C-alpha cells in the first residue's frame, strides 16, 4: 500500500503540473498524432494527455523505488 | 497486519524503509471524538464558506454565460467579468506567487491556519466525520460497532454511511467537472444520463478520491502525502503563534478531585483526562510538544478549555501562543507586537506588491489582440494586372464584454492594398474571430524577398482602440 502511494501520488502531482504547463503553451488543435491532426474532443485530449503524463511520471517513481532498494533488501530476496 | 513487529535492533539496521513501512501498515484507526467551542465554530464557518463557494459557483451566471468556468474546449477561463486567454499565462504565474506568499505570510504569523481551517482535506474530512457521527454515533459507539460481529444493525449503519458519503462524493465530483465543462450541458447530460465518457470518468475519479481521502485515509493524507506538511516548519520562528500545551502550568499532570487546589497536591493543571488526544484528528498528544503531524486545527484547545471550565481553572492550558511568549512570560500585547517583525513584514510587503501588480496588470490588459499568420500553403502568387498576392490569416481577439466591429488597413509598401477593399468583421464579446486577407502589391513595389508591412486594426465604435501588427510580405525573386 505504501509503495503504491509512493508511486502513484507524487507522479499524480507532477503530472497535473506538467499538464497545466504543457497545455498553456500548446493548443491541442495544433497537435499531431501519427501524422494526423488530433481529432478528439477537447476534454478527451486533455484527459488522455493527463493520463499519459501520469503514466510516464509513475514509471519514473517506480524506477526510483526499484533502484532505491538497499543491498540488504536485494540479498534477502535471493 | 498482525505480523510480529521487527525487533528494535533489526529495525535500526535498515532503518528508513522498515520504519515507514510499519508506520503505514500498523496505522491505528482513529475514533475522533467530536468537539464544540470557539475554534470548532470557526472551522465550521470555513466549511460553510468554502463549500457554498465551491458547490455554488458553477451555478451562477454572468452576462449570459457561466460566471466561473475554466472552459477547456474554448481554451478560455471565465471568471465573472474577466476572461483569461492562453496568452494570459503571466497572470496564472502571478497568482501562483500570490498563493505561495499568502501561505508563507499566514504560516509565519499563526502556523498552519490553512491546514486547520481551509484545506479541502480538512474540510471534507470534517463533513465526512459529521455524517459518520450522525449515522454511527459518537466515537465510543463507532469503535464498538467496528469490533462487533456483523449484524443487521451494523450492516444497515455501514451501508447508510457509505451511501451518504458516496452521494456527497458524487456531487463533489459533478461540481468539480462543472468547472471545466458547462454546468448546463452537464445537467442536460445528467437528465438523460448521457455524459461524455471523459466527463463521467472525471466525475467518478474526483468523487472516488473525495471518498477515499475524506472517508478512509484522513489524517494519513496530511501525514504522508502532503508536501506542505513537510516544509511548513521552515516558515516558523520563535514568534509564530502555534498551538501549544503550557507545560509549566500543566505539569506534573495527574488525576484529582474537583475543588482541590492542585498546588496543594503538588500537581499542575492538567488532569490527564486525555480528551485533547481523543479529539485530535491526527491522533497525537499535543502535550508532547509541537509535532509535524499537528495540523493546527485547535480541536484540542476547545476540548481542554471545556475541561478547564469544569474544573474552575482558567482557560488556555492549551492555547495559541509563541515560543518566545512562553519562555519570557509575555502577555497578549507583546505577542501582538511581535507579529510585526522582519519576516512577516517582508512576506507582507512582497505579497502586497505582487497583488498590486496583478490588479494593475489586469486593469491595463489590452482589450484587443491580433495574431497575424502568413498562409504557408501559398507563399507569393502572381495575379492578374502584374500584382503579387500574399495571404494572411488574422485571429482577432476581442477581450471586451461587448460585440465590436473592426476594420483593417495595410501599409508599408507603395500601392499595397487588401483585395476586395478593407474588410469589416464583427467579433462577439470575449471571443475570437478569424479572417483571411489577400494583400496585393504591384510587382515592382519592393525588393525581392521579404518586405515589412503593417496591419492596422481599428475598432469602429472607438477609433482610439487600434493595434498595429507587423508582418512580412514576400515578393518573388
Ligand atoms: S484536555 Fe487538558 S486537562 Fe485533559 S489531558 Fe489534555 S491537556 Fe490535560
Ligand atoms: S494536536 Fe490539537 S491542533 Fe494539533 S491536530 Fe491535534 S487537535 Fe488539532
How widely separated are the two ends of chain A? 23 Å
Largest sheet of chain B: 5 strands, antiparallel
Ligands bound, unique? iron/sulfur cluster
List the strand order in the largest sheet of chain A: 1-2
Indicate the mean pLDDT of chain A: 81
- The low-confidence runs of chain B, each spanning 5 or more residues with pLDDT under 50, are 1-25
Number of helices of chain A: 3
Instruction: Estimate the global geometry of chain B from the Cα principal axes.
Output: elongated
Helix content of chain B: 40-55%
Number of strands of chain A: 2
Write the layout of secondary structure elements.
The complex is a heterodimer of chains A (78) and B (477).
Chain A: H1 2-25, E1 32-33, E2 36-37, H2 42-68, H3 71-77
Antiparallel strand pairs in A: 1-2
Helix pairs in contact in A: 1-2
Chain B: H1 8-13, H2 15-25, H3 38-56, E1 61-62, E2 65-66, E3 68-71, E4 76-79, E5 82-84, H4 89-110, H5 113-118, H6 120-136, H7 139-147, H8 152-178, H9 183-192, H10 197-217, H11 219-225, H12 227-231, E6 242-245, H13 247-250, H14 275-278, H15 299-311, E7 318-321, H16 323-328, H17 332-337, H18 342-363, E8 368-374, E9 381-383, E10 387-398, E11 404-411, E12 417-418, E13 424-427, E14 431-442, E15 449-459, E16 466-475
Antiparallel strand pairs in B: 1-2, 3-4, 4-5, 6-7, 8-10, 9-10, 10-14, 11-13, 11-15, 12-14, 15-16
Amino acid at each position: 500500500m505504501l509503495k503504491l502511494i509512493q508511486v502513484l501520488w507524487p507522479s499524480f502531482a507532477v503530472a497535473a503540473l506538467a499538464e497545466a504547463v504543457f497545455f498553456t503553451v500548446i493548443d491541442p488543435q495544433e497537435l499531431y498524432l501519427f501524422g494526423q491532426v488530433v481529432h478528439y474532443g477537447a476534454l478527451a485530449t486533455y484527459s488522455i494527455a493527463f493520463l499519459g503524463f501520469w503514466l510516464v511520471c509513475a514509471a519514473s517513481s517506480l524506477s526510483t523505488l526499484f533502484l532505491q532498494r538497499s543491498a540488504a533488501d536485494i540479498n534477502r530476496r535471493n | 497486519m498482525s505480523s510480529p513487529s521487527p525487533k528494535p535492533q533489526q529495525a535500526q539496521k535498515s532503518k528508513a524503509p522498515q520504519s515507514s513501512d510499519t508506520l503505514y501498515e500498523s496505522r491505528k484507526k482513529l475514533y475522533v471524538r467530536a468537539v464544540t467551542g470557539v475554534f470548532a465554530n470557526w472551522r465550521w464557518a470555513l466549511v460553510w464558506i468554502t463549500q457554498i463557494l465551491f458547490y455554488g459557483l458553477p451555478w451562477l451566471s454572468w452576462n449570459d454565460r457561466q460566471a466561473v468556468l475554466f472552459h477547456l474546449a474554448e481554451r478560455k477561463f471565465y471568471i465573472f467579468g474577466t476572461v483569461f486567454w492562453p496568452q494570459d499565462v503571466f497572470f496564472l504565474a502571478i497568482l501562483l506567487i500570490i498563493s505561495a506568499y499568502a501561505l508563507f505570510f499566514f504560516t509565519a504569523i499563526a502556523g498552519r491556519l490553512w491546514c486547520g481551517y481551509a484545506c479541502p482535506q480538512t474540510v471534507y474530512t470534517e463533513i465526512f466525520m459529521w455524517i459518520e457521527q450522525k449515522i454511527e454515533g459518537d466515537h465510543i459507539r463507532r469503535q464498538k460497532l467496528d469490533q462487533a460481529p456483523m449484524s443487521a444493525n451494523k450492516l444497515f449503519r455501514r451501508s447508510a454511511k457509505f451511501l451518504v458519503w458516496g452521494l456527497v462524493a458524487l456531487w463533489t465530483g459533478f461540481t468539480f467537472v462543472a468547472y471545466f465543462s458547462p454546468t448546463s450541458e452537464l445537467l442536460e447530460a445528467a437528465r438523460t444520463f448521457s455524459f461524455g465518457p471523459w466527463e463521467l470518468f472525471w466525475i467518478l475519479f474526483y468523487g472516488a478520491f473525495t471518498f477515499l481521502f475524506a472517508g478512509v485515509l484522513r489524517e494519513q493524507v496530511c501525514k504522508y502525502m502532503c508536501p506542505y506538511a513537510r516544509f511548513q516548519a521552515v516558515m516558523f520562528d520563535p514568534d509564530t503563534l502555534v498551538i501549544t500545551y503550557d507545560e509549566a502550568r500543566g505539569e506534573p499532570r495527574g488525576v484529582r478531585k474537583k475543588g482541590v487546589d492542585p498546588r496543594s497536591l503538588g500537581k499542575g493543571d492538567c488532569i490527564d483526562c486525555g480528551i485533547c488526544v481523543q479529539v485530535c484528528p491526527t491522533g497525537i498528544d499535543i502535550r508532547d510538544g509541537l509535532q509535524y503531524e499537528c495540523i493546527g486545527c485547535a480541536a484540542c484547545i476547545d476540548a481542554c478549555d471545556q475541561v478547564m471550565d469544569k474544573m474552575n481553572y482558567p482557560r488556555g492550558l492549551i492555547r495559541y501562543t509563541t515560543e518566545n511568549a512562553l519562555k519570557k512570560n509575555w502577555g497578549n500585547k507583546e505577542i501582538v507586537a511581535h507579529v510585526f517583525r522582519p519576516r512577516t513584514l517582508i512576506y507582507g510587503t512582497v505579497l502586497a506588491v505582487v497583488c498590486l501588480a496583478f490588479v494593475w496588470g489586469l486593469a491595463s490588459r489590452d482589450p484587443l489582440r491580433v495574431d497575424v499568420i502568413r498562409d504557408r500553403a501559398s507563399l507569393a502568387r502572381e495575379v492578374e494586372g502584374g500584382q503579387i498576392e500574399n495571404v494572411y490569416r488574422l485571429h482577432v481577439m476581442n477581450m471586451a464584454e461587448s460585440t465590436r466591429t473592426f476594420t483593417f488597413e495595410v501599409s508599408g509598401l507603395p500601392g499595397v492594398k487588401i483585395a476586395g477593399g478593407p474588410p469589416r468583421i464583427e467579433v462577439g464579446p470575449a471571443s475570437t474571430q478569424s479572417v483571411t486577407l489577400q494583400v496585393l502589391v504591384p510587382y515592382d513595389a519592393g525588393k525581392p524577398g521579404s518586405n515589412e508591412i503593417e496591419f492596422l486594426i481599428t475598432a469602429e465604435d472607438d477609433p482610439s482602440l487600434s493595434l498595429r501588427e507587423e508582418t512580412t510580405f514576400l515578393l518573388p525573386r
